[in-house]
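Work Package 4 report. The design task specified in the project plan requires that, given a folded chain encoded as structure tokens, an amino acid be chosen for each position. We show below one input record used in the internal validation round.
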């Protein structure tokens, strides 16, 4: 009897309106919030997967230089260097003497002609032949003096800043040997640009107008980001060491940036921004509080293309469906 009574009481409680309301409460407010949060995350992920963008990039190493590249000064005449007038960092003007070379053969010839002229002048004969001989000797001496000035001096072909002096006083040089590397300054120079070298299989995908991100080695990328740039030109064929030498002017740089191969040469124009200390536009708000100088090594990343993230998943989904 007592068991039956308990069953009857239980049935009454379950059938009461209050108990029916409690049975209808399937989830708590916290559970609803969790469900809404998960749904929002899924919708956001799906939206990003369809309308978002993942960049396809390629990278390389390079150097910041003045637009127009590096110019190497050489000399057509060989000989021993007697004096070097400049050092790295000096500003030189067009026509300024930067190196002197010993041309003792010409000096000896001039001295010999001078002795001949003195002997002719000391002659007591006042003849037309003697006067003609004096004139001839003077002309020969003047010609040799001009040749001596040309052959014994190396001058800057234009205004520039010395980047590297490749020889030392006392060195014997061969005709055409590179003596000094310099970059353009003044009216002949524009802003800095990046000369970057990329592996051939990747470099051929780069086109003028593409966006480039340049990270100078003197700046912490994780703190200041990178400089925004734009590709201006891409070499049609891989660059040889000789071709790179014309642009870079240094065997060490050629070896470092070529990595024992013939890379594609990419020129990148840096976007200017007068509000930053460097004068260039950075991915961060203001960039580093320093000036970026030519000769700074850098790494560069070029955005070749971009695609929605969902496209990366579709091939795997197709493979899965085909297997099943």
């Amino acid at each position: 009897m007592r068991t039956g009574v308990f069953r009857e009481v239980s049935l009454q409680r379950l059938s009461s309106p209050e108990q029916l309301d409690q049975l209808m409460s399937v989830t708590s407010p916290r559970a609803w919030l969790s469900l809404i949060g998960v749904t929002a995350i899924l919708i956001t992920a799906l939206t990003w997967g369809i309308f978002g963008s993942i960049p396809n990039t390629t990278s390389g190493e390079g150097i910041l230089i003045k637009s127009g590249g590096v110019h190497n000064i050489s000399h057509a005449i060989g000989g021993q260097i007697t004096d070097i007038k400049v050092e790295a960092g000096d500003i030189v003007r067009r026509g300024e003497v930067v190196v002197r070379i010993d041309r003792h053969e010409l000096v000896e010839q001039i001295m010999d002609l001078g002795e001949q002229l003195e002997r002719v002048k000391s002659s007591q004969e006042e003849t037309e032949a003697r006067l003609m001989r004096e004139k001839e000797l003077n002309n020969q001496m003047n010609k040799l003096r001009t040749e001596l000035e040309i052959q014994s001096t190396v001058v800057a072909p234009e205004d520039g800043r010395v980047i590297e002096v490749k020889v030392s006083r006392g060195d014997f040089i061969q005709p055409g040997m590179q003596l000094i590397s310099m970059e353009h300054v003044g009216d002949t120079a524009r802003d800095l640009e990046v000369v970057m070298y990329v592996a051939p299989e990747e470099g051929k995908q780069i086109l003028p107008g593409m966006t480039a991100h340049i990270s100078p080695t003197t700046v912490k990328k994780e703190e200041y980001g990178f400089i925004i740039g734009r590709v201006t030109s891409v070499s049609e064929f891989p660059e040889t060491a000789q071709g790179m030498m014309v642009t870079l002017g240094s065997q060490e740089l050629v070896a470092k940036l070529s990595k024992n191969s013939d890379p594609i040469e990419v020129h990148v124009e840096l976007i200017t921004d007068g509000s930053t200390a460097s004068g260039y536009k950075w991915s961060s708000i203001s960039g580093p509080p320093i000036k970026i100088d030519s000769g700074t090594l850098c790494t560069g990343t070029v955005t070749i293309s971009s695609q929605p993230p969902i496209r990366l998943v579709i091939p795997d989904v197709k493979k899965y469906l085909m297997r099943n």
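The chain is about 40% helix and 25% strand. Validation will be extended to a larger panel in the next phase.
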